[in-house]
Design brief:
The protein has 288 residues and is of the alpha+beta class. The protein has seven helices and 14 strands. A four-stranded antiparallel sheet has the order 1-2-3-4. Helix 6 packs antiparallel against helix 7. The longest helix has 22 residues. The chain is flat and about 85 Å long. The relative contact order is 0.12. The mean pLDDT is 88.
């Protein structure tokens, strides 16, 4: 499409294969999360649907819905974001409704429509590292390879002080649990891979007792800091899992040659038909 649609807190630029979302900096009333994200490129294959609906106080909302598993930010949020903080919502003045409907139709024309299968891997990149934020009981830092928690004596539990400051390699992690700081038990918890726990001990149920978690509080671990942090860790965990996935062992050329020789002998003896010989030979050649 190649056009630009400017909303109240963001601008959507329509590319042939993506929507480039630029969040307007310095806009009064804009969520701090938008300022933290800055700019996001959303491939069309990452979207499931798009809708246009009436907004509040003389506005309309163009809302794109990402596929499950396509965006680490939305995976980490797990439905906990307030409506106004959803980065896939573009709020426009009501007088632009006709224009917004046009772009909604243009997007619908290139999207598959209906429910789509979850994405096999993340299609939208999270914010760049390094990242850090202050929780109530410690400082969390992520450099792309490892997550570190450094405890504050004013907030950390005795269990965390006993365990000491913590560092977790991305390769040790299975995921991240983010509970919004807007709720009473807000926290960020690192989920460790099976077999990586010390003495296979289960993680404590309460985040304030878990050395693999930091807890939030009033002014600590705000959404615009802790959620991008969680998303970046999730993306790195998936990347590490893909890199460590076992790859098929290469075939031994000598072994394939020996099987080809044996197949030729069977064919010469009349135990394999011409069709069977040709089909099996093609299979063996494909293994090289």
């Amino acid at each position: 499409m190649g056009d630009v649609l400017a909303g109240i807190h963001a601008t959507w630029e329509f590319e042939p294969d993506a929507v480039l979302i630029r969040f307007t900096r310095g806009t009064r009333g804009a969520p701090k999360l938008f300022h933290a994200l800055g700019e996001r490129r959303i491939p069309l294959e990452a979207l499931e649907s798009v809708a246009l609906s009436p907004g509040k106080r003389g506005t309309v909302v163009l809302h794109a819905v990402p596929r499950p598993g396509a965006d680490p930010l939305m995976d980490a949020a797990s439905g906990q974001l307030k409506e106004g903080c959803d980065p896939y919502r573009l709020v426009l003045p009501a007088e632009r409704e006709t224009l917004a409907e046009y772009y909604a139709d243009e997007l619908r024309a290139v999207l598959p429509g209906g429910k789509t299968a979850p994405a096999a891997s993340y299609l939208v990149s999270s914010v760049a590292t390094p990242l850090q934020f202050k929780a109530y009981d410690g400082k969390a830092t992520f450099d792309g390879d490892k997550v570190s928690f450094r405890w504050f004596w004013t907030g950390a539990s005795s269990a965390k002080w006993k365990a000491g400051d913590q560092t977790f390699a991305v390769s040790e992690l299975a995921g991240v649990e983010w509970r919004s700081p807007d709720v009473l038990d807000g926290h960020l918890r690192l989920l460790r891979r099976a077999g990586d726990l010390a003495a296979d001990a289960p993680q404590p149920a309460q985040a304030d007792q878990d050395p693999a978690a930091v807890v939030f509080g009033l002014g600590y671990g705000p959404v615009h800091e802790s959620l991008p942090f969680a998303a970046a860790v999730l993306e790195a965990v998936q990347g590490a899992s893909s890199a460590s996935a076992p790859r098929p062992a290469p075939h031994d050329p000598a072994g394939v040659a020996e099987r080809m020789r044996h197949l030729g002998e069977l064919h010469s003896a009349g135990l394999v038909t011409d069709e069977e010989f040709s089909a099996k030979k093609a299979e063996l050649l494909a293994e090289l």
